[in-house]
Amino acid sequence: MSAPPAEDLIKQWESEQASLRKQVLEEDTEDWQREPDFSGLERIGGVDLSFIKGDDVNACAQLVVLSYPDLEVLYEDSQMVTLTAPYIAGFLAFRETPFLLEALQRLERNQPTLLPQVVFVDGNGLFHYREFGLACHLGVLSGLPCVGVAKNLLQVQGVYKSEEHQSQIASLKKGGDSFPLTAASGKVLGKALRSSDKSSKPVYVSVGHKISLDTAVHLTHRCCRYRVPEPIRQADFHSREYLRKNFPAANTQIKE
């Protein structure tokens, strides 16, 4: 008897993730990453998808490019898209990456001088069931350095919302403080970062592609005016604004 379609799909996706995972570079590859003040970094991208409430198929795929270090919006692209792949936990990238990649490719074709030198992704990178989250997927396929920043803790590989975890969060006294997210294997898959003095709730930073974890954490902190780094915050804002203007009768929901 053949496996159900969902089972076949999961096996196919696991195989693709394993193959692409081998291409992830977990170290700094760009000259600007090695500069203490990120000298040479001028453009930072942010991507996100926002959905109309009650509709998990039609979404606004958003790309913004911000200047660095001023964090002012240089470019924004909002496109309504129809997601065709089903949602299966751990495989979000197969639903979202094609549309985010299209936005980057559209920018490269039309205004290549504005192509970002690094992309912030609203989601995880190596901090994932199989160490290949959305930020890794987009990074490998685009060839761009990517950083995954999640607002909520993915409880995976032995990392849980335990008393110890809550105690570690309480120990983050100021913006820039962080602690490692260590898997049961002993490998550090990311870091919890207190991104702002104003917010005691951390964000979870992990490597996507072509950047080291320490550089990803440092850059994330540099890009935070509030709790969420500005590239992701602006992508979320612009996508929800697009939905509000074009679908005024519907309420939007924020993807966590």
UniProtKB/TrEMBL annotation:
InterPro entries: Endonuclease-V. The keyword Metal-binding applies. One of its GO terms (molecular function) is DNA binding. Keywords: Cytoplasm, DNA-binding, Endonuclease, Hydrolase, Magnesium, Metal-binding, Nuclease, Nucleus, RNA-binding. Pfam families: Endonuclease_5. It is found in: Cytoplasm, Stress granule; Nucleus, Nucleolus. GO terms for biological process: DNA repair. Its cofactor is Mg(2+). PANTHER family: ENDONUCLEASE V. Endoribonuclease that specifically cleaves inosine-containing RNAs: cleaves RNA at the second phosphodiester bond 3' to inosine. Active against both single-stranded and double-stranded RNAs. Has strong preference for single-stranded RNAs (ssRNAs) toward double-stranded RNAs (dsRNAs). Cleaves mRNAs and tRNAs containing inosine. Also able to cleave structure-specific dsRNA substrates containing the specific sites 5'-IIUI-3' and 5'-UIUU-3'. Belongs to the endonuclease V family. This is Endonuclease V. It comes from Anabas testudineus (Climbing perch).
